[in-house]
Amino acid sequence: MRKNIVAGNWKMNKTLQEGMALATELNETLAGYTPNCDVVIGTPFIHLASVAAAIDKKKIGIAAQNCANKEKGAYTGEVSAEMVKSTGAAYVILGHSERREYYNETSEILNDKLALALANGLTPIYCCGEALEVRNANGQNAFVQKQLEETIFKLSVDDFKKLVLAYEPIWAIGTGVTASTEQAQEMLAFIRSIIAGKFGQEVADETSILYGGSCNAKNAPELFAQPDIDGGLIGGASLKVADFKAIIDAF
Ligand code: PEP
């Protein structure tokens, strides 16, 4: 059975103290209670080790929001997949549209990051999604298919099975505009169908595919009730425990 997952992406928010307060509050809120989904928080690098030491990692998985495309060495300012793993993090978000757009992350760079993340035992949460112009021209399926074919479809089936996918239409990220339930379900069903074409139906059925883009407590129940939506990657609404918990409770 594929997993349902609610994963937070804090982006570049929260000082160390604020992040620790948020993680600790979430940990306390989830103590003595078993959510109907896996819960992950994607913190900035500086929080990873401290958060890992302060929370129940069996209950809350920890994700980095990026890792380097190099193994180690003279790459000032970079953080390797091995370093991420050493903090206690289990996941790494890769291919987020903000990184593709603002930091010029190409498919080639992402392939190196994916390989290093997997080699170090991290679970990539691999993001894909189209811009508004592409959606308006009805090119979203071809666009997303190309993103996947250039990257994760090149993995071996065994490595592919270790991934979590997240479809995040760029026009819905941080904008307050959510994809309609139909648009989200349609795209996730399409992604699952091309996974089946590439790796077989059984692998497709076992792959967790999340929706991301202005997901909140109000729209999460309907989104998560769709047959192909296995949870959410949550930006803004992961920064307050009450908001994030309400999304977790949508399962
Ligand atoms: C994101 O960037 O991963 C995201 C989904 O952001 P938001 O929920 O704020 O739209």
What does this entry look like structurally?
With 251 residues, this protein is α/β, with parallel strands linked by helices. The chain is globular and about 45 Å long. The chain starts with a strand and ends with a helix. Helices cover 41% and strands 15% of the residues. It has twelve helices and eight strands. It has one domain: Aldolase class I (TIM Barrel, Alpha-Beta Barrel), CATH 3.20.20. The site of phosphoenolpyruvate has 13 residues, from β8.
The number of distinct structural domains comes to: 1
Bin the strand percentage: 5-15%
Low-confidence stretches: none
Helix fraction bin: 40-55%
- The CATH architecture can be given as Alpha-Beta Barrel
CATH C-level class is: Alpha Beta
Give me the CATH superfamily.
Answer: Aldolase class I
Rg calculated over all Cα atoms: 17 Å
Helices and strands, in order, run as EHEHEHEHHEHHHEHHEHEH
User: How would you sum up the major sheet?
Assistant: 8 strands, parallel, barrel
